[in-house]
Amino acid sequence: MAHSSAAPTSLATVYGYPRQGQDRELKKAIEGYWAGRAGADELRATAAGLRRTAWRDLADAGIGEVPCGDFSLYDHVLDTTVMVGAIPERHRAAFEADPLDGYFAMARGTREVTPLEMTKWFDTNYHYLVPELGPDTVFAADPAKPVGEFQEALTLGYDARPVLVGPVTYLLLAKPAPGVDPGFDPVTLLDRLLPVYADVLARLRAAGAEWVQLDEPALVQDQPPAVLDAVARAYRELGTLTRRPKLLVASYFDQLGAALPVLAAAPVDGLALDFTGPAAANLDGLARVGGLSGRRLVAGVVDGRNVWINDLERSLSTLATLLGLAGRVDVAASCSLLHVPLDVAVESEIEPEIAAWLAFARQKAAEVATLAQGLARGTNVIAGALAGNRAALAARKTSAITCDQVVRARAAAVTVRETRRAQPYAERVADQRARLDLPVLPTTTIGSFPQTDELRAARADLLAGRIDEAAYDERIAAEIREVIAFQEKTGLDVLVHGEPERNDMVQYFAERLTGYVATRHGWVQSYGTRYVRPPILAGDVSRPAPMTVRWTTYAQSQTSRPVKGMLTGPVTMLAWSFVRDDQPIADTARQVALALRDEVVDLEAAGAAVIQVDEPALRETLPLRAAARPAYLEWATEAFRLTTAGVRPQTQIHTHMCYAEFGEILAAIDALDVDVISLEAARSHMRVAHELAEAGYPRQVGPGVYDIHSPRVPGTEELVSLLREGLAAIPLERLWANPDCGLKTRGRQEVHDSLRNLVEAARLIRAEAT
Ligand SMILES: [Zn+2]
């Protein structure tokens, strides 16, 4: 690689690091504080210790400029809400009485006040707390956290760069506060918010910060001209402040598109851009605007969202191109490393062959440092790392794990015929009616029943070797018998086995499919103190043996009513895992679909007349840019149909989705060609049923009438009235009565009472209609 002696030294940096610590110390400390086992000082000391460890980790890996302020006790968007003083009215008294307890009250609610709403951080599996703003919102700077954490890093001797959520993204993440006109646009508050940012920036400068990073990931979504104008105004104002640090505006998760020329023209000192995956288009975008002429470019070339080793030579070639487009090019991960587990080195149970392909946060930081070194001093200095990387990539490419010829041949041979059911819905529905012999307005549940303490204890006992497989299986069988007996006695029409054997709807299947690997310590923050361990889809996928047939068949043997077979769909199996990056995702989806298809066919052969394939992730996986959505929906719906279309016409296929807003995916929902769809609808008063009806959706629909997110038991009258609302949209012969979602997190008694009321409500509606 050419190495210009005029080029300044390239620095290695990242935007954020996992917060939890090696053994999730943060979770334990916060939950201990909530439970009253530890005081605030103890929690603060643990948090400071974790920050210290994270900075030391990064410095040890060779990161020259470490981030600060990215740490959070719960969520960085909530931290921003505190920083700008946008405390909701209902939380103000608690916050003023005790900022720490007030902070947690906003996050989790209390007996008296509801928390802020939580939603997904762009298309990741991290959830943030949604700011609530209105025309009366008064902002006031509270720079204590960003300044305090910067000073901490400074005292420890680090060259640290505070990282803040940028003002435009903050407003775009917000929603109108309760009681405010739902049409209120938070971006109209920009002029009020900017002085607060100016204040925080000045305080950081006074504390000694040379650079401050402002994250604007919302700009990688399609934004209207008004938002682009707001961006221009925001950075003109912040960029021309007299007392300010140098400003680095960061974006990630996709390309900036139309926002790139706006930011490039703003008087800021540098941009941090993502150059991985679809965001690689930023390279052309940057060339089109003529580069950053003399300013700083931070190039995110190491994917911060997946768990795979970087292709170092490819990244170096991207970096070499970028050298001509900026005054100084630094190297980074594409986004905060918050989205990956901490350290692959502790995963002693992953086969060494696969472990050699993996990079978690610690390894990614080292890759970034290696690339920066290669860029600054020439590739000779990193020759050893390059050779090792080349060998690992070559081994991955030819491994039997990534190249199972049987799986590949089968996936390549899939034809359109296999993705279509033998008969169209309008014809097969009569066969299903004859076979199932259900009443009108059939009642069912979504799948899971309450996971009791006894079940959790049984799983722990099995893991610890206190009971053997046979004893564990007997506990599962006993639970299934009880769940079936309850449903029969209550009078539900289509039963479920309750899923007592399943730890998690993705992990359970991942553990049984070839091609997936599990981690032991690979925790990733989902929200607050909740962490998940996504499985890693590393190789070609196949199903060595049936996964669910045994318990479904056992449940069916306990009753003459139909028991639903229950599976997680291919899109969700990918969305909640780390998916291989060495082949198109559509190819991976097809392999998973074929494995699940085998399970569907086996369930049918074992006697299941109803099979439900859940796709809660179908909508959340929608690409951030509209232009990429048709291709996504194409492979996603194909994978779902490939999973389900292998059954006979008289077998009824259900799906379930956990949300009420379908908007642009309505056509895709129809393209799934299911017989019955159940959805979340109780809290939105059946709005989704009306939307489906307006779109001409021709199939059976179960809009949820029992809100399972609340411990409240809905009364029969309330359920009757919701069913009537459903009937206003969906005719009786196509309507089902069911809860909003699975019952796993609810208490047993409230579930029993609620389902009794549900069955009674359906009976009353039926009686009314005949
Ligand atoms: Zn659900």
Give an overview of the whole structure.
The protein contains 28 helices and 22 strands. It is of the alpha/beta class and 770 residues long. An 8-stranded parallel β-sheet has the order 1-12-11-10-9-8-6-2. The longest helix is centred in the first third of the chain and has 22 residues, at 40-61. The radius of gyration is 27 Å and the shape is globular. The termini are far apart. The site of zinc ion (ZN) has 6 residues, from loops.
The hetero molecules present are: zinc ion
Strand content: 5-15%
Reported for the largest beta sheet, the result is:
8 strands, parallel
Structural class: alpha/beta
Radius of gyration: 27 Å
Number of β-strand runs? 22
Helix content: 40-55%
Count, helices:
28
How far is the first residue's CA from the last residue's CA?
81 Å
Q: Could you tell me the mean pLDDT? A: 96
The global form is globular
Spatial order of the strands forming the largest sheet: 1-12-11-10-9-8-6-2
Low-confidence stretches: 1-7
Give the SSE map.
Elements: E1 12-13, H1 25-34, H2 40-61, E2 66-68, H3 76-83, H4 89-97, H5 99-108, E3 118-120, E4 127-129, E5 132-133, H6 144-155, E6 160-165, H7 167-173, E7 175-176, H8 190-207, E8 211-215, H9 225-239, E9 246-250, H10 259-265, E10 270-274, H11 282-288, E11 296-302, H12 312-323, E12 328-333, H13 352-355, H14 361-377, H15 383-398, H16 405-412, H17 425-436, H18 453-463, H19 469-490, H20 507-510, E13 514-517, E14 524-527, E15 530-532, E16 536-542, H21 549-556, E17 564-568, H22 570-575, E18 578-579, H23 585-605, E19 610-614, H24 629-644, E20 652-657, H25 666-671, E21 676-679, H26 687-694, E22 700-703, H27 716-729, H28 748-769
Parallel strand pairs: 1-12, 2-6, 5-7, 6-8, 8-9, 9-10, 10-11, 11-12, 16-18, 17-19, 19-20, 20-21, 21-22
Antiparallel strand pairs: 3-4, 13-16, 14-15
Helix pairs in contact: 1-2, 4-5, 6-8, 8-9, 9-10, 12-14, 16-23, 18-19, 23-24, 27-28
The structure holds zinc ion.
Residues 446, 616, 656, 658, 741-742 line the site of zinc ion.
